[in-house]
Amino acid sequence: MTVLSAPLISLIVDVALLAMLLVIAVSIAVTRSLLASILLMSVYSLIVAVWFVVLDAPDVAFTEAVVGAGVSTIVLLGATLLARAETEKRNWRNIIVPLLVALGTGAILLYAVTGLPEFGDAASPANQHVGRGYLETTPEEIGVPNVVTAVLASYRGFDTLGETVVIFAAGIGVALMLGFGERSLAGREPVISPRNGNHHVVLRVVAKLLIPLIALFAFYVQFHGDLGAGGGFQAGVILAVAVVLHALVFGLRDTMAAVKPGFARGVAALGVLLYAGVGVVCIINGGDFLDYDRLFTPDIEAQIPDWILPSDKPHHWGQHFGILLVELGVLLTVAATMVTIFYGFAGRLTDDPQESGT
Amino acid sequence: MSLLTHVNYFAVVLLMVAGLYIVFSSGNLVRRMIGLALFQTSTGLFYISLAKVAGGTAPIRVEPDSETARELSSRVDPGYAAQYAIDGVVYSNPLPHVLILTAIVVGVATLAVGLAIAARVREAYGTLDAGEIADADRKAGRGPVP
């Protein structure tokens, strides 16, 4: 079965999205304005997210939409504010040599690509074996419909713990280099302050409506992650976006009063601790690290009333609660780390009064 | 092998080349980070393209014999379904989705670290241009010996 027998419409959508991506990528390469390339990058991420939906990856699309179009744009803009938007200086030597290197690499990769299985090939090695195995065993072993969540939190829970720690470490790294942003609370007025947004009544009213909805949606994405697309990573970033939006509209000082930088740091650490703690409880109860089947001892498991998760199939209480707790740890760490990173960039803006005045 | 069956992979390679070019050609440190982000996103596209199964649906298991399951299985050829379907429904491969999902979030965290370094460099040198930074180092006698 080739891609041609797939509905023609999905092929058209696929090619159209790819064309858009190529145009944007070339525009980013050509433009000299830093601001333009950041905004183009944001549009690029949004189109990538749409493309992920076309390719049956709603979980990934979710993440890319929030992270690529949301948080990384904010972080890039924050860094540009710190550095002021500079227009790049160019000379010919800086164009020809990199172009040759990039094209050479591209030529090798294009040659390699011709050896890949056809797009959509169900019999390709990548789509048999492990991936198919997860699809087959998830209902019996884990008992959650969303196989992506099952692989992420249970089968490969150890990887995800590592990734959560990497995110936590990145947050610490940013905080060590830029500070926690608390300096902007003392004395000088931050650049992101209400006086800049005082006139935008529409923005303030809309933001007041949106922020609770965004936060609520984050929790829906979190707790619906077992059943449909969603999970801790997506929900964490969405929750952080609610905080960032509050800061952009109402000023950093007000946001830091509501979500204190110290609180965010503590929560980031708590998330990692919760994740690792679940693993340790499994060891204590006689299993391996993160072996959720041993999360509860049999006599505790017998006491869990059936109404918690009504189902006519055998319950996997350990798996259900293990995934729930672990995803909660991911949510806490991701959300708090993103907020800490944002505070680091936004709070830094005030360090140099000359520049922050502009 | 034809252009249509591999169009995704060709496009992904071109996007990677664009990212690589931005990384190499830009003197500006923030633009280099943008190039890296572009490169990383195209890697994600490559993985997700590989995970697509023709006639498949998102890897969220539907109840066997439910209405959704029947509707989904009616879309694919019975012979094809007999070979590749699980309980009558063809799913795309979930594993690359998991890898890329976490990679995206880790990517933004590392992007933030890179940008934080760039911001500190700007504060120390007064510029974000890699060439000017190297010049300043050379003048101060800190740079690599030519």
Mind explaining what this structure looks like?
The complex is a heterodimer of chains A (358) and B (146). Chain A has 358 residues and is mostly helical. Chain A is built from 15 helices and no strands. The longest helix of chain A has 32 residues, at 317-348. The radius of gyration of chain A is 24 Å and the shape is globular. With 146 residues, chain B is mostly helical. Chain B has helices at 7-25, 29-51, 67-74, 78-84, 94-125, 130-139. In chain B, helix 1 (7-25) packs antiparallel against helix 2 (29-51) and helix 2 packs antiparallel against helix 5. Chain B is elongated, with a radius of gyration of 23 Å. At the A-B interface, helix 1, helix 2, helix 3, helix 4 and helix 5 of A face helix 1, helix 2, helix 4 and helix 5 of B.
Average pLDDT taken over every residue of chain B: 82
Query: Main sheet of chain B, how many strands, which sense, barrel?
Result: none
Mean pLDDT of chain A: 80
- Estimated share of beta-strand residues of chain A: under 5%
Shape of chain A: globular
Look at the helices and sheets of chain A and give the structural class.
mainly alpha
**Tally of DSSP helical segments of chain B:** 6
Helix content of chain B: 55-70%
Residues in β-strands, percent of chain B: under 5%
Question: What is the β-strand count of chain A?
Answer: 0
List strands and helices in order, with pairings:
The complex is a heterodimer of chains A (358) and B (146).
Chain A: H1 8-30, H2 34-54, H3 58-83, H4 93-113, H5 129-141, H6 147-155, H7 157-178, H8 194-197, H9 201-223, H10 232-250, H11 252-258, H12 261-284, H13 298-303, H14 317-348, H15 353-356
Chain B: H1 7-25, H2 29-51, H3 67-74, H4 78-84, H5 94-125, H6 130-139
Helix pairs in contact in B: 1-2, 2-5
